[in-house]
Amino acid sequence: MLPNPTLDQLQVFLTVAETGSFSAASRVLNRAQSVVSYTIANLEAQLEVPLFERSGARQPKLTEAGRAMLEDARRILGDLQVMRARVKSLKEGLEAEVSVAISVMVPSQAVVDVLREFRDMFPSVSLNLYVGELGMVMDLVLSGKATIGIGGAVLRQDDSVVTERIGHSFMLPVAARNHPLAALERPLMLGDVREEVQLVVTDASGLTKGRDFNVLSYKTWRVSDIATKHQLIKAGLGWGGLPASLIRDDLVSGALVHLDLEAYEQGEYGIYSMRRLANPPGPAAAWMIDAFRTRLSACPNQADFHARIAELHEPGMPLAAE
């Protein structure tokens, strides 16, 4: 017959092992020493192995089997504590799980800071994280795969979705420092970029099908994600717009050059929280929205961003095609 130890037996075993004696365990557990000894004896009978060496020692010493079982007991009782915390949270209305879709336009440091605090604030809440491009964030919210979305422009008006502006971001047209556009020492005209390859992200959600944003070149390479676009631009394979927060270090080091291109719309755009009207956020999701609002409201505007880059810029490296 397979052993079937109880949680109480495991707790008594763990207490004896940690306190070093049956008498000390009886005081911690507020039980008679005889009850503690009887519980351990029953556990050993269940497992059919001795857990403590009792002969010839004033204090019980773990056997080899006992040392192996100790780690299992700690893990099982630890899982029980997690389950108890989760049940307590559910009774208090806290979600068991939060699914969030976040746009690549959201500064990565803000994402890391918020998620670190979320982990500490809600240790019992599981997290599903999606990172999307363009319409993917709204698509995930509409489909119900994401409880909340944190993303850029609202690409489609939908009465079933509640949106709220919580911050801002902006894109910058850039090229590698060895790209022909970066070598032009003047403001760029539309004609300068027409024949150069422009890298463009394709929206997998389909919400922007048939629509292009700031696509100025006749030659385009379309990629599936912003990370690939970033790497190809750094490699000098084309030019394109990238989120300012993503390329801050590249601009400081001179690996990328900001292009002075008036035809490229560089105004700030909003970052929004999104959720379905029929699915109001619970305490954890609501906290996350507020945390992103706090972080994003402190993000610099374009003027401050450029001033900071100029201050940190490495000497001798091109800063912009001007």
Automatic annotation (TrEMBL):
Domain HTH lysR-type span(s) in chain numbering: 5-63
PROSITE patterns: HTH_LYSR
SUPFAM superfamilies linked: Periplasmic binding protein-like II, Winged helix' DNA-binding domain
Keyword list, A-Z: DNA-binding, Transcription, Transcription regulation
One Pfam family named in its UniProt record: HTH_1
Family from the record: Belongs to the LysR transcriptional regulatory family.
Protein name: LysR family transcriptional regulator
Provenance organism: Rhizobium fabae
